[in-house]
Specification:
- The chain is α/β, with parallel strands linked by helices and 480 residues long.
- It has one domain: TIM Barrel (Alpha-Beta Barrel), CATH 3.20.20.80.
- Helices cover 40% and strands 12% of the residues.
- The protein contains 16 helices and twelve strands.
- The strands form three sheets. Strands 1-2-3-4-5-7-9-10 form an eight-stranded parallel β-barrel, surrounded by four helices.
- The chain binds 6-O-phosphono-beta-D-glucopyranose.
- The site of 6-O-phosphono-beta-D-glucopyranose has 14 residues, from loops.
Length: 480
């Protein structure tokens, strides 16, 4: 008998990101963000861009738009449709919706003397509408929405001036929404910088002498910026919780070969060091050694060390999609990033090669809990798949099977006494893929009729999983 332990106030819901859903990329005074630069082209690697891939001149942009489709400029037009879209989530009984705020809507240029009123007005209305529909908003302050000027004029997060601009942006949001929003995530997936470097820290590969250093420096500066917001919220006595967010990259060793076991340990520490800093308040010895051995002379000021020590964060937000497996055969050179993952023969993978492993969720959450004992939010989980619309619905049993298994794994964690306070299914309404720019890598309970090139009616349809998740929420997981 599977005893279900979800607490009564469990935050069932979903998560979206401004750049993947809103569209309206140049409306109401919005500036250009890095995600607006990505054309849909299956052959193009957008994770590392050169400065020649971008220009802030609107005219130049408009010209380029004619040469291809830039999906994140258009999203699913949520900027104009959010009122209707939120009704679907209300119908499913969502208790929470995690959103992000597009930085370039609030501060469209490097001049921060005054925020863009129209940008703020959009989020005022959106947040109120979320609450009106019975959901608690959770805010991610930065979810791959670095304004282009940060990259063009400052070279991205490696520049400490970016900390100041982000602090102004973050304080603007905290001052305005602290009474309506309790949970805040300063940076989406702070540890994913080695996989999505450009979107994470905004450094152009040709604009730095040492790309590796720019990533680690960028992440350090993001941790400082997060601590500054935590400090500010504490000083202002705002009743908020500020969390650290990781994309889970926990890896299994391929086998008991001690070299593989140590490789997995080192790989996992590269994941953990972010939360070691953000929860324990200091850089652990193993990562200082790693920096030294890899000639990564990161500028860590004494004042910043103090700040990190005195302002540890409150909760752990995790996005979990897959587990990884590492092997020395595959990753001879581990010196500069995560070890690359090998296909695990014991588990299936999605068409995008993402290993489907609900037990991996139990494994990683247990490891995080044993290490930190911080409350956990599942900030993202879900299955990206090709869906087929037939008779105005999608029979997405595969998505139900995936989510059901992961929720059961979550319940196993609850049985161990792990404090998990919410579950946000990624992209509850179909949106643009972060990594591939595809519309057709769908995660939603609601199908949106738009294809990879932007064609379609934009109409919304309830999938089979819509009714399944609605029932999960209504029964507080008892139907699992
Ligand atoms: C997470 C990101 O890493 O994964 C989301 O926070 C993203 O922005 C999600 O959409 C799924 O990845 P993808 O590439 O399938 O959209």
């Amino acid at each position: 008998m599977n005893k279900i332990l979800f607490p009564n106030d469990f935050l069932w819901g979903g998560a979206i990101a401004a750049n993947q859903i809103e569209g309206a990329w140049n409306e109401d005074g919005k500036g250009i963000g890095l995600s607006d630069l990505f054309i849909y082209n299956p052959d193009k690697d957008n994770s590392k861009l050169h400065s020649s891939d971008m220009t802030s001149k609107q005219v130049e942009f408009a010209k380029r738009d004619k040469q291809g489709y830039y999906p994140k400029r258009h999203g699913i037009d949520f900027y104009h449709t959010y009122k209707d879209d939120l009704k679907y989530l209300k119908e499913m009984g969502f208790k929470t919706l995690r959103i992000s705020i597009n930085w370039a809507r609030i501060y469209p240029t490097i001049n921060t003397s005054h925020p863009n009123d129209l940008g703020l007005k959009f989020y005022d209305d959106l947040i109120d509408e979320i609450i009106k529909n019975g959901m608690e908003p959770i805010i991610t302050i930065l979810h791959y929405e670095i304004p282009l000027y940060i990259t063009e004029e400052l070279g991205g997060w490696q520049n400490k001036k970016t900390i100041e601009l982000y602090e102004i942006f973050g304080k603007t949001l905290l001052d305005r929404y602290h009474s309506k929003v309790k949970y805040w995530i300063p940076i989406n997936q702070i540890n994913l910088v080695h996989i999505e470097p450009f979107l994470s820290v905004g450094t152009c590969i040709d604009k730095t002498d040492n790309y590796e250093l720019s990533k680690f420096q960028g992440v350090h500066n993001q941790m400082v910026a997060s601590a500054l917001l935590k400090k500010y919220a504490t000083e202002q006595k705002y009743n908020v919780k500020i969390g650290s967010m990781l994309a889970d990259l926990t890896a299994y060793p391929e086998n008991a070969n001690p070299d593989n076991v140590l490789l997995a340990l080192k790989h996992n520490r590269l994941n953990y060091y972010h939360t070691d800093v953000q929860f324990r308040g200091e850089y652990p010895g193993y990562i200082r050694r790693y920096f030294e051995e890899n000639n990564l002379s990161i500028e860590i000021l004494e004042s910043e060390e103090k700040l990190l020590k005195n302002n540890v964060l409150d909760f752990l937000a995790i996005s979990y999609y897959f587990s990884q497996m590492v092997s020395v055969d595959q990753s001879k050179d581990f010196s500069t990033s995560y070890a690359s993952s090998k296909k695990n023969p014991f588990i299936d993978a999605t068409p995008w090669g993402w290993a489907i492993d609900p037990k991996g969720l139990y494994n990683c959450l247990s490891c995080y809990w044993d290490r930190y004992q911080k409350p956990i939010l599942i900030a993202e989980n879900g299955l990206g798949m090709h869906d087929e619309l037939v008779n105005e619905t999608v029979n997405d049993d595969y998505r139900i099977v995936y989510l059901q298994a992961h929720l059961i794994a979550l319940n196993e964690c609850l049985k161990d006494g792990i404090d998990i306070f919410g579950f946000c299914a990624w992209g509850p309404i179909d949106l643009v893929s972060a990594s591939t720019q595809e519309m057709e890598k769908r995660y939603g309970f609601i199908f949106v009729d738009i294809d990879n090139e932007g064609n379609g009616t934009k109409k919304r349809y309830r999938k089979k999983s819509f009714y399944w998740y609605k029932n999960v929420i209504a029964t507080n997981g008892a139907c699992l």
